[in-house]
Every structure is written in C-alpha cells, then in structure tokens.
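[Automated response] Your request has been received and processed.

Submitted sequence:
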Amino acid sequence: MLHTPSSSPTPRTAALRFYLMSGESIRVLVVDDHPMWREAVARDLGEAGLTVVGTAGDGAKALRIAPATRPTLAVVDLNLPDVSGVELTAALTALPDPPKVLVLSASGESEDVLAAVKAGAGGYLVKSAGREELLDAVRRVHAGEAVYTPGLAGLVLGEYRRLSNEDDSTSQGHEKAPRLTPRETEVLRLVAKGLAYKQIARRLTISHRTVQNHVQNTLTKLRLHNRVELVRYAIDQGLDGPQD
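Generated structure:
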C-alpha cells in the first residue's frame, strides 16, 4: 500500500504542495480494479493537494465519467476486468480533451511497458514505487515529461530508435522541418537522451520552466503533439548520439 501516515509532510511533499498551490491545476482520474489499492492511491493524491475528480474499477466507467469530470491526468492500471489498460490508455488519449496518462502496474515486463507507451502513456511506474515517487511522477507526467521506473527508460528509448529506423525510409521527400534555435536543438538533444526536465535545467544552467518553454516551442514548430513523438523525431535526426 502506498499510504504511509506521518505527523508532518516531508520536504518533498511540502514542495509538491507549494507547486500545486502556485497555480498548476492537476485533476486526476484513478483507474484500478482493486478497491483498496484504488482508494489508497486516490487518498495519497488527495492528501498531497491534487484534485481527484473520480475513480473507476474498469475501463467502461472510466470512459463514461472522463468527459464530465475532465481529468488532466489519469493513473491507469493495466489489469482491468473489461479492457486492458493499454486499450484504455489509447481511448483516453483519443478523447477531444485528452488527459495525460501514467500507468501504475504490477507488471514490469518489457512488452507491457512498450505497449503502454505506444498507446500514448506518458509514464510507467511499477506498483512497488513509493508514495513520494508516485507523487513526483504524477507532477512530471502532467508537465509533459516522460517518467519511467528506473531501468525501463533505456528500454523505451531503444524502442524509439528502432521505430525511427523503420520510419526513416518514409521520411524521404517530406518537406524540411522548421529551423530550431541552437538552444532548442540543445534541449532536444538532451530530451532524446532520456534526461528529465530538471536534469536538463541543471545541465544547461537554466530554469525548469525555461526548459518546458523550449520543449513546447519545439513541439509547435515541428507540429508534434507530445514527448513520445519528439523523442522519435530527435532520434531520427541523430540527436541522441554522444555530443556533450
């Protein structure tokens, strides 16, 4: 169980609460077929200051309540009684106002991880993750970062490279992409290497918000929609190679 009672918030939790109170609105839908686990996750998120707009024990209910509750992020289990979490992820991210998706699963199998990412998940944590790790992942995925349980990021990046190689021949003849600024290219190179936004900010001695702005500008220029597409583009352009 993720919930660990304490008499006072940890510095990290306090920082997260400050972040949330500063104007960032995170509305969460929790989907898990296990009632106790679902309630524990919802309680932990609520106690950290996030707004839990709904919970569901199956994909049908999640899709039924999502349009009305308007979550900005969904925490989704893979093992659901009616549809797979992968199918639900694809359906949620296809909504007119789609939430970001963080998969929280007992499985750490590569097939499950890659299937979830291909379906549109922005992050993947195994259920052995601690409470603070979950809260941090929710915030980062909501901000547009890709977050994975340690050991899984390399797997996902490897798959991006494979897919980019397969798509390379189809890129022949396409119109040239808009020109990026040197700083945007520098940020994109570090994104392709799997660095989190905070790591990029420290590496380049700029603020976390500035990194986010560069990524958003790059997405807009390239007409891409999320970090998954951005990483694939960067790898296709050879920006993931060693050049520090």
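Summary generated for your ticket: The first strand starts at residue 27 and ends at 31. The chain has eleven helices and six strands.
If you did not submit this request, please reply to this message.
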